[in-house]
Design goal:
There is one protein chain. This protein has 603 residues and is of the alpha/beta class. Helices cover 46% and strands 12% of the residues. It folds into four domains: 193 residues, P-loop containing nucleotide triphosphate hydrolases (Rossmann fold, 3-Layer(aba) Sandwich), CATH 3.40.50; 194 residues, Rossmann fold, CATH 3.40.50.300; 103 residues, Orthogonal Bundle (Arc Repressor Mutant, subunit A), CATH 1.10.10.10; 79 residues, DNA polymerase, domain 1 (Orthogonal Bundle), CATH 1.10.150. A seven-stranded parallel sheet has the order 3-4-2-5-6-1-7, sandwiched between helices. Helix 14 links the parallel strand 12 and strand 13. The relative contact order is 0.09. Bound molecules: adenosine-5'-diphosphate (ADP) and zinc ion (ZN). Zinc ion binds next to helix 17 and helix 18. The site of adenosine-5'-diphosphate has 17 residues, from helix 3.
Length: 603
Amino acid sequence: MTNTPEQVLKDVFGYEQFRGPQRAIIDELLAGRHALVLMPTGGGKSLCYQIPSLLRPGVGIVISPLIALMQDQVDALRELGVRASFLNSSLSLEAQREVMQALRSGALDMLYVAPERLTQPATLDLLRSVQIALFAIDEAHCVSQWGHDFRADYLQLSLLQEQFPHVPRIALTATADANTREEIVARLGLADSQHFVSGFDRPNIQYRITQKQTPRQQLLRFLRREHEKDAGIVYCLSRKKVDDTAAWLVEQGFDAVPYHAGLTPEQRQRHQQRFLREDGVIVVATIAFGMGIDKPDVRFIVHLDLPKSLEAFYQETGRAGRDGQPATAWMVYGLQDVIMLRQMMDASQGSESFKRIERARLDAMLGLCEISSCRRQALLHYFGEQAPEHCGNCDACLTPAPTWDGTEAARKALSCVYRTGQRFGVNYLIDVLLGAESDKIFQNAHQHLSTYGIGRELAANAWRSVFRQLVARGYLNVDHTSYGGLHLAEKARALLKGEERIDLRVDVQEVLAKPQKKARGTAQVGDADRVLWDALRECRRRLAEEKDVPPYVIFHDASLMDMVHYRPLTSQQFLDISGVGQSKLEKYGEAFLQVIREHESGH
Ligand code: ADP
Ligand code: ZN
């Protein structure tokens, strides 16, 4: 019997070492304590409760709202030899009875339960009668009434601390804002437990934003060069554009399907299922697609239209590369996007203040598009996180844009924010800089300020770009809750005092994005390895079809990549492949070794 976390990691999951805080979190649970875990998508949250579930006596109960995913999660665990089941409304009564029986007789290592199911008296009675290793509350932000994923059933989970005070609870989420965190802690009784907060960064995602020229041709080049047979999502704003784009991609030889609210539920279900179950399907979608999609090998996310906010951008691009392998977030944007979004916002039913907030969010999104500095740094800064100046894996780091010395302009802009009392929005500040004669300026007596009219050397548009870049790079903060007013960030001090200089991106519409030096497509398989890669994928597809599970349940891309690199020829060597534990070696070792041997002997 295996007995240390390291042994379980290797023998069951086939991995060499723990990532980030995984080991520390597991230790907390093994010691019988609770934990709160904030980790970005793809960070490896599941192992944090799966391994303690296997090591502690009793069954690990996983509470998740994503009913549609339970089957796949359980299938994946069973492939690893873990005795897992799930309980939710999709099961027949007979099947439910079987699961309850297995639970009663101690035949389960892990049980996934929907929250509404868990809180039923019958379920609670049953749980009280068996030994429980731990409760894992996945997607824990659903307890938060602030968030958009609030679930009333999650509120009732406070009963866990009342009825099972001695069973360790681990709450996990990828949503990290302070309000949400506080609510999770309060509702789930985690005040005295350790909090594990990992950064927001998704280092394997390459962020690229390009001026829109001929979007279809740009998209085609991108896909052909970098993601020929990969699965991905292409987001568009309108249903019509989704339909047109999907049809056009099919004409170009891609396996693409549309997804939007105008399709019948059956069509949507079928297209989603193809995306999940088959290799290399592209979904062209409105934002309605993606919630609860847990496909690990999405290799690219494309935005053909500008998302409404950085929150939306981060969430949508976050669906790429959950398996930790290289993935691309690629976007084209143009002035038309901005106008269209503005119009949609202005026409919406919301109050004036709501619209103002929406506008400030859009400006932050634009800021990300326009900066010349590292995209990742700006993105992380927006979410309140520090980041190095250069990530080396975004277009700004890989192919720097032309810049100008914006030190003087930035200083004028910052000092104008300061002089006007750090509460006005961009339009007003620009009016002051240009020395406009508006009623509002006279009412505030701002025509007497030293910054009044000192910015006439630049046009309003150029000032707009200066402000956006200052916001995006963390010199100015936007007040999200009021009028979109700007105030100075700590970082602005050195620039204002003349201790620092700054380069700003030139606002050029006509510059064509330079092609990437090196494509980072399908997990970076070189041409020489293509044949073996394709053969391994074919083997995986065949096995997945036989078992009626998604291909990644058999092996992740990372495992196939490893096989391509190391070309194992024996079972022992096969065990060294990432993601290969005892169970997968027994089930699939021979099939894949056969493919590799054939390939090697053919050379
Ligand atoms: P999350 O739930 O945080 O989005 P997952 O638990 O699904 O992330 O893990 C993301 C991917 O990383 C999975 O493919 C998982 O198998 C893999 N993974 C997790 N921990 C490790 C590790 N220690 N070594 C290698 N791969 C890991
Ligand atoms: Zn960068």
